[in-house]
Amino acid sequence: MSSSPTNSSLVTIFMFLFFLNLPFSNSQLSIKATIRRAPQQLSVNYYAKSCPQVESLIGSVTSNMFKEAPASGPATIRLFFHDCFVEGCDGSILISSKAGSKELAEKDAEDNKDIAKEAFEGINKAKAIVESKCPGVVSCADILAIATRNFVHLVGGPYYEVKKGRWDGKLSKASRVHQNLPQSNSTVDQLLKLFSSKGLTSEDLVVLSGAHTIGFAHCKQFVNRLYNYKGTKKPDPYMDPRLFKALKMSCPQFGGNVDIVAPFDVTTPFSFDNAYYGNLEAKLGLLASDQALSLDPRTKPLVQQLAKDKHKFFQAFADAMEKMGGIGVKRGRKHGEFRKDCTMHHI
């Protein structure tokens, strides 16, 4: 992995990505959570008798989705993160807001509005196929967890076993979203506090942030780094000048195209690898919250290790995804349900 791409390669990829205005704009990933984990309640063979073909059914959908709409990959991974961090991994992000309701559902919160629609469509397609073979048995929450793993693998990341047994949550409120998700300008202190509230460690923070090895962010997520870093009216000094120049060309301070996007990983934007960490070392992180991980003494050593060892990153990422997948698991009719339609509560 080249940690210091040439000026021409940097500019070329940005010009290519920006001015084609790719539809991947919605696949920015965020990371953070709030809830106790209950991994002991989950098992790989949960559906062995009730729906033994569940993995292959979902796999047929995710492989087709990835071919037809590559944006569905990073978008679905982001969807899983945002689901788990808000009310636990319970599929509550999939519920549609009720017409006329005063309270919007999670899906319509500002932080979730630019998740690509393909992510939601893919889960709904998978649910429909699973329901046709195993009616009323498999939760939307488990389908999202399995689909996420599939997409991680489809984009070149590790394959790992998904533990199952989550029920679908009954609560979905947009008002609960913002404070439970990391923000593009979050400090390491804020990130560590948020992750800790979900039962996740500083190591989990660094490893799960590696999901930004794929996906894209809108200009609004990093424009302050270009023109007014921390209120200084100057650019972020921790950004490579070549990256700054390329971004500035496409993201003016005011009045820019809101659909323009930039890749989180400027060197290998379409591959799930460990280049993200080498980029941070080279001051090529896109978001302030990403770049901060390579500067803080609590997170820098692991950034350096993962930049050197792709195998270690893959193993750690698989472990961290399993850990995150156990956040706030719902079980029993008091707290959960099995939705036949992931967008609607069971009636």
UniProtKB/TrEMBL annotation:
The active site is at H82. CDD domains: secretory_peroxidase. It catalyses: 2 a phenolic donor + H2O2 = 2 a phenolic radical donor + 2 H2O. InterPro entries: Haem_peroxidase, Haem_peroxidase_sf, Peroxidase_pln, Peroxidases_AS, Peroxidases_heam-ligand_BS, Secretory_peroxidase. GO terms for molecular function: heme binding; lactoperoxidase activity; metal ion binding. Keywords: Calcium, Disulfide bond, Glycoprotein, Heme, Hydrogen peroxide, Iron, Metal-binding, Oxidoreductase, Peroxidase, Secreted, Signal. Residues 41-346 form the Plant heme peroxidase family profile domain. One of its GO terms (biological process) is hydrogen peroxide catabolic process. Substrate binds at P182. Heme b binds at H212. Residues 1-27 form the signal peptide. Binds 2 calcium ions per subunit. Binds 1 heme b (iron(II)-protoporphyrin IX) group per subunit. Ca(2+) 1 binds at D83, V86, G88, D90, S92, E106. The record marks R78 as: Transition state stabilizer. It is found in: Secreted. Disulfide bonds join C51-C134, C84-C89, C140-C342, C219-C251. Its EC number is 1.11.1.7. Its cofactor is Ca(2+); heme b. Suggested to catalyze the deposition of the aromatic residues of suberin on the cell wall and thus play a role in cell-suberization. Removal of H(2)O(2), oxidation of toxic reductants, biosynthesis and degradation of lignin, suberization, auxin catabolism, response to environmental stresses such as wounding, pathogen attack and oxidative stress. These functions might be dependent on each isozyme/isoform in each plant tissue. This is Peroxidase.
